[in-house]
């Protein structure tokens, strides 16, 4: 019986030692896993806009509705012919709505009642194209419409022509790769300074893509940007 008791004691002692080893090893591995660095990787690309929209408004005044209607139709025709001459296709030119305000019909007209012209008519005309260079040339040449007595204005005074870029999906894979590479370089620099090595990725957040104008005066050139946040494990 005494011999069996010694055997049990030895077995229990060995079990405690083994268990302690595994617990300690698990703790050390857990601590090693906790050692990490979180860094951000940037990717930026400059691109040209591939779509331009120029919303135009024509405004004229008069006292005779029939004359006003005729003048408005003539001006719309002149504007359309101008853009066709500049090389635009029919499907790039969109005729919009027409609005006519009657100052005599306004309930609270105030000084409007004494206007020289009773009616104010406005008509919308939109140019939508993927040929940015052609539209910019037309914008310069549009001054010739003034010689015909046609005054055009943009519906958006703060940004006469709206430029946009639609090719983001084609850029995403390469830009994400570049952002990840940039993040890895930052992590390796940090690891070198702390006498460590960069190991596997612990977590990653791709981040959102943004498309902004190069500057307020160069909206036809865009800056595509993405910032990825990546956490790497560190090891000795």
Number of domains: 2
Q: Which regions contain 5 or more consecutive residues with pLDDT less than 50? A: 15-33
The tally of beta strands, per DSSP, is: 9
Q: Helix content range of the residues, please?
A: 25-40%
CATH topology of the largest domain: Alpha-Beta Plaits
Class of secondary structure makeup: alpha+beta
Q: Report the order of strands and helices.
A: HEEHEEHEEHEEE
Biggest pleated-sheet summary: 5 strands, antiparallel
CATH architecture of the largest domain: 2-Layer Sandwich
Write down the overall geometry. elongated
CATH class of the largest domain: Alpha Beta
Describe this entry's structure for a reader.
This protein is elongated. The protein is built from four helices and nine strands, in the order H-E-E-H-E-E-H-E-E-H-E-E-E. Strand 8 and strand 9 (221-235) form a beta hairpin. Helix content is 38%, strand content 34%. The chain has helices spanning 2-34, 65-85, 132-141, 168-193; strands spanning 36-48, 51-62, 93-102, 119-129, 152-154, 162-164, 197-205, 210-213, 221-235. The protein is an alpha+beta fold.
């Amino acid at each position: 019986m005494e011999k069996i008791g010694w055997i049990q004691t030895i077995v229990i002692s060995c079990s405690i030692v083994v268990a302690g080893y595994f617990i300690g090893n698990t703790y050390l591995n857990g601590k090693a896993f906790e050692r990490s660095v979180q860094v951000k990787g940037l990717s930026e690309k400059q691109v040209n806009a591939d779509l331009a929209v120029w919303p135009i408004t024509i405004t004229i005044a008069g006292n005779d509705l029939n004359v006003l209607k005729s003048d408005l139709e003539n001006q719309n025709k002149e504007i359309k012919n101008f853009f066709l001459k500049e090389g635009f296709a029919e499907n790039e030119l969109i005729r919009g709505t027409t609005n006519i305000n009657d100052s005599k019909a306004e309930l609270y007209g105030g000084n409007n009642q004494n206007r020289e012209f009773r009616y104010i008519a406005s008509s919308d005309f939109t140019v939508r194209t993927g040929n940015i260079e052609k539209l910019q040339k037309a914008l310069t040449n549009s001054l010739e419409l003034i010689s015909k007595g046609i005054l055009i204005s943009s519906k958006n005074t703060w940004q006469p022509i709206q430029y946009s870029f639609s090719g983001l999906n084609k850029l995403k894979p390469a830009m994400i790769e570049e952002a990840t590479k940039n993040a890895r370089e930052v992590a390796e620099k940090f690891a070198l300074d702390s006498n460590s090595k960069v190991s596997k990725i612990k977590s990653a957040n791709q981040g959102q893509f943004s498309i902004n104008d190069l500057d307020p005066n160069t909206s036809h050139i865009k800056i595509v940007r993405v910032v990825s946040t990546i956490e790497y494990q560190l090891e000795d």
